[in-house]
Design goal:
Strand content: 25-35%
Distance between the termini: 112 Å
CATH architecture of the largest domain: 2-Layer Sandwich
Domain PAS: 157-184, 267-325
Number of strands: 22
GO molecular function, one term: phosphorelay sensor kinase activity
EC number: 2.7.13.3
Catalytic activity: ATP + protein L-histidine = ADP + protein N-phospho-L-histidine
Strand order of the largest sheet: 2-1-5-4-3
Keywords: ATP-binding, Kinase, Nucleotide-binding, Phosphoprotein, Transferase, Two-component regulatory system
Shape: elongated
CATH class of the largest domain: Alpha Beta
Mean pLDDT: 77
CATH superfamily of the largest domain: Histidine kinase-like ATPase, C-terminal domain
Helix content: 40-55%
Length: 633
């Protein structure tokens, strides 16, 4: 203590006594003069105010400690008047940012003259004890909350003899006894009478006491006498001197769970039995393509055992290039969510363990289970069925060829009928040219050259018809190409209506804006249209109108030829497409029959339709081409 300050200290406090007092008292003390300048302070005060290594003597409290100067000044003035000022708990922020709780007092001390000579400040920091109290309180609150909200479990505490001391809301709901009814009740009340007679409740407590815990599944009794299957855990609570010993019991009603588990087990057994006997192979994969399940039929189909397939990527069952592309298909589906084969049938190729590639039919279903997306694929081997189908197809072709050969006489007549028109045209053109040459009309030579070109074209068309009909007779195949129906109709009309103008007959062609294309034998379908248009011209004879139209009708392209002639007699309508049935003096009655045969060989149909205003309308359809290749693959 500085010499000039010693004089201000109370003479009745010896230096040694003051030091001893300040060092032993658990609170921190500081002695100030009337101006709040330090005289003496305890070591605890220096530590709590982070003044270690400093001598605050002679310095003002206002200068050294971060305090609210205005509040301190108010307290300072009150103490100088002889009052004692204190605070039970006050929040204080230290120099290092730490928060403490303070209990403090400021009291005056008097000099020998009885006047206030200074101020004694006492601080106590109960932060640690407050935190312990708060932690204990929170633990008590959390335990109470846990016990109250665990309504799916019956939680109860038992004393050492097995009587209830705590009974939560879940126990009330599960057993039916209220808390007031249950407190003090023996645990044995929740057992069936037979188990009470066999001392089962006491044996369970004894096992928990000796082993520390006991677990069991058994039937328990409610207040109303009904029983339920319960999962029970009993834990020993050791006596610690302050708390009595006893047991804690947790009970869970598993009646529904057990029923569901047994039902699930039975369903699983039934499902496994079905999967072992279902004829189609079943493979289950996850969204990464990893095989999760591989049925018995799948083993037989691909040659892999379940230990070889499960856990592997399903692409191992595919040939190239599908093997490389499969994971990309799955990734695209995960990103877009747009299915391409789910829920539909698809033909693809599989690869067996021995490397053999074979055709199969795939049906894919999607499901969600265990928090993940699963895909189940049913696969059917098409090897045998497709080989059988190929043999049947070949047999049908051979039978059709035999039928065609047996009808060669009729078809030879049909050839004569179809060739009659181009051959007559060639004859007329050649005769006209010969007459022109004999007349020596030089001005007509150019027209004669054009006529000879036309005769050549007709001769080539007749040759093409003979070649195609010969091919049809030999194998029954059509030389199909992808064609524009509008172009077919326009060219056929131009060929068939050359003499219509001379007869005063007008014709028109109506086309859809954008009809689909068709896969046909161009010459045969064009010949059908030419026959229909020429029949219309012959029916009208002189004057009148012919309307040709090409329209879209669902999946088909519809061709129609309509005239305003006399029409078809009612008694002739059912014989229109019968071979050798005709009203023409020079006709053979094969034209419409051949036309219908050609249309049906293209997968279409042909019919007659009566026109209300008079005349006749013949229509036929050809399937629209769906973009597949010419061979149908």
């Amino acid at each position: 203590m500085r010499a000039d300050l010693k004089e201000t200290a109370p003479s009745f406090f010896p230096e040694e006594l003051v030091g001893l007092m300040l060092g032993q008292v658990p609170a921190s003390f500081a002695l100030f003069d009337a101006d709040l300048n330090y005289i003496r302070c305890s070591d605890r005060w220096l530590i709590e105010n982070q003044l270690e290594g400093r001598d605050p003597a002679g310095h003002s409290l206002y200068e050294i400690c971060p305090v609210d100067a205005e509040a301190l000044r108010s307290c300072h003035q009150a103490v100088l008047k002889g009052e004692t000022v204190s605070s039970e708990l006050e929040r204080c922020r230290r120099r290092d940012g730490r928060i403490d709780w303070l209990r403090w007092s400021m009291a005056p001390w008097h000099g020998s003259d009885g006047q206030v000579a200074g101020i004694l400040i006492t601080n106590e920091v109960p932060t640690a004890s407050l935190e312990d109290q708060l932690r204990t309180h929170l633990l008590d609150e959390e335990l109470s909350l846990f016990i109250d909200i665990a309504d799916q479990f019956a939680l109860c505490m038992l004393d050492d003899s097995g009587h209830v001391t705590i009974w939560n809301a879940g126990a009330e709901r599960m057993f039916g006894w209220s808390e007031a009814e249950a407190l003090g009740m023996p645990l044995s009340r929740t057992f069936e009478a037979g188990e009470r007679d066999r001392q089962v409740p006491q044996r369970q407590l004894d096992l928990a006491r000796s082993n520390g815990t006991f677990r069991d599944r058994g039937w328990r009794v409610r207040k109303d006498g009904s029983v339920f299957l319960a999962d029970i855990t009993i834990s020993l609570i050791e006596r610690d001197g302050a708390l009595p010993g006893g047991f804690g019991q947790i009970v869970r009603d598993i009646t529904v769970e057990d029923t569901q588990s047994r039902s699930l087990e039975a369903s699983s057994v039934l499902l496994n039995s079905i999967l072992e006997t279902v004829p189609d192979a079943l493979i289950v994969i996850d969204e990464r393509g990893i095989i999760l399940s591989f049925s018995k039929a799948a083993e037989e189909l691909f040659g892999y055992g379940p230990d070889e397939a499960v856990g592997q990527n399903v692409s191992m069952l595919m040939p190239m290039p599908e093997r490389k592309e499969h994971d990309g298909y799955l990734a695209r589906y995960r990103q877009t969510g747009v299915p391409h084969i789910i829920g539909s049938h698809r033909r693809l190729m599989g690869q067996r363990k021995d490397g053999a590639i074979f055709p199969l039919e795939l049906r894919v279903g999607e499901a969600f289970g265990g928090g993940r997306r699963l895909f189940a694929g049913f696969l059917h081997d098409l090897s045998t069925s497709e080989a059988t189908e190929a043999r049947l197809h070949e047999t049908r072709r051979e039978l059709a060829q035999m039928a065609r050969l047996s009808e060669m006489g009729t078809l030879a007549t049909a050839i004569a009928h179809d060739l009659n028109q181009p051959l007559m045209a060639i004859g007329n053109i050649v005769q006209t040219c010969a007459q022109t040459i004999r007349d020596g009309d030089a001005a007509a030579l150019a027209h004669m050259a054009d006529a000879l070109d036309e005769a050549g074209a007709e001769a080539m068309r007749a040759g093409e018809m003979i070649k195609r009909l010969r091919r049809f007779l030999s194998r029954g195949e059509l030389e199909r190409t992808e064609e524009d129906p509008a172009a077919i109709a326009r060219e056929a009309c131009e060929l068939a209506t050359r003499d219509a103008t001379y007869r005063g007959i007008e014709w028109s062609l109506y086309l859809d804006d954008n009809p689909a294309r068709i896969l046909i034998d161009r010459v045969q379908i064009q010949q059908v249209l030419i026959n229909l248009v020429r029949n219309a011209i012959e029916a009208i004879d002189h004057g009148g109108h012919i309307a040709v139209a090409v329209t879209r009708d669902g999946h088909d392209i519809c061709f129609s030829v309509t005239d305003d002639g006399p029409g078809i007699a009612p008694d002739r309508e059912d014989k229109l497409f019968t071979p050798f049935s005709t009203t023409k003096q020079t006709g053979m009655g094969l034209g419409l029959a051949i036309c219908r045969t050609v249309v049906e060989s293209h997968g279409g149909s042909m019919w007659h339709q009566r026109v209300a205003s008079g005349g006749a309308s013949f229509l036929f359809t050809i399937p629209a081409h769906d973009g597949e290749s010419v061979d149908g693959t």
